[in-house]
Amino acid sequence: MPVIPKKISWAWIDDGEVPNREGRVSCARYALVVLNIFFLTLGILLVCLAVWFRSLPANWNVLAVSTSTKTREDVHTTTMFAIAAGSTTIAVAFVGFCGAISNSKYVLGMFFLFMAVHFVLLLSVGGLGIWLRAKIVADSTYQLQMSFIRAYSGDQAENVESVAWKHMQSDLKCCGVTAKDGFKDFRNLDVGLKENGQSLKGAAFWRQNNFTNVQWPDSCCTRNENRFYVDLNKCRQNESASGARYETGCEVAIEVLLNNDVLLLTVLAILQVIIEAVHFCTLRQLEAATVDDDTSTITLFSFERTSITSV
């Protein structure tokens, strides 16, 4: 007797499962909608965080004195990748919404392809973030010391390093570099630098004011709740100025600040990678549940079998 194909079906769907297919399709579609809501939210957050990191002058002030030129270029590249990944996330989520609502195999197929490419981009952002955090930790202390000794000429100076140090010390409530007793770095910080045969010791600000009464800048001086200096003269002149001058150095505060910003970018990218992995599974289940009872259905990404019967 001739053998006639009855229908093309999914490999793990038996004929007995057909009555439950509608519920499975609805469940998978709702799950896809919820996943895309999370996906869209994370994409918007990633773009906003990357744009904020790039556009905020305070961040670049910190980078200017705590990282090398190469590291700043790497930060620039990472934030650009993050903006691209976040923007692509928004576009991919929109396609996913359309696919979940229309239940079109062609839209879902396009969604699958977009996600595959986007998955690689997100992995790149996550990897760059992890690598960049390690690089900042290794780079920041040395660069802070170099800029402090060579270029910090006080709050009134207009060079990039002096402006950056002024705002960092004032905003982060710190003074000098060293985590403990950083204010002593103005006189004592010595990393073996030499210029014209002379050892460079302490901040450029202190060396320039060595014979005056002003030995600490105003940005190291504490303020009260009304933003007035507690005791400006004591802060500027006295070795012991407890309560009138910040004594903790900026090293740890700057490292934490930069690491937290990069960590947020990395975490958002990794969360999107996880959600994309769940997306793949949900999309696969939606495809598996979508079968026409009366006609042969050939889908885009699944293995099929032929169910046969003898006549």
Give a description of the structure.
With 311 residues, the chain is mainly alpha-helical. The chain has helices at 21-55, 57-66, 69-102, 105-151, 160-172, 185-188, 204-208, 232-237, 251-289, and strands spanning 3-10, 194-195, 198-199, 304-310. The strands form two sheets. It has a two-stranded antiparallel ribbon with strand order 1-4. A two-stranded antiparallel sheet has the order 2-3. A hairpin with a 2-residue loop joins β2 (194-195) and β3. The protein is elongated and about 85 Å long. Residues 1-19 and 291-311 have low confidence and may be disordered.
List keywords for this structure.
311 residues; mainly alpha; two-stranded antiparallel ribbon; two-stranded antiparallel sheet; 62% helix; elongated; disordered N terminus; disordered C terminus
Brief description of this entry?
The chain has 311 residues and is mainly alpha-helical.
**Which spans of ≥5 residues are poorly predicted at pLDDT below 50?**
1-19, 291-311
How many individual helices? 9
Number of strands: 4
Shape: elongated
The largest pleated sheet is described as:
2 strands, antiparallel
Strand content: 5-15%
How would you spell out the order of helices and strands?
Answer: EHHHHHHEEHHHE
Q: Residue share in helices?
A: 55-70%
- Rounded to an integer in angstroms, the radius of gyration calculated over CA atoms is 30 Å
Structural class: mainly alpha
Instruction: Provide the spatial order of strands within the biggest beta sheet.
Output: 1-4
Beginning-to-end CA distance, first to last residue: 6 Å
Average pLDDT score: 78
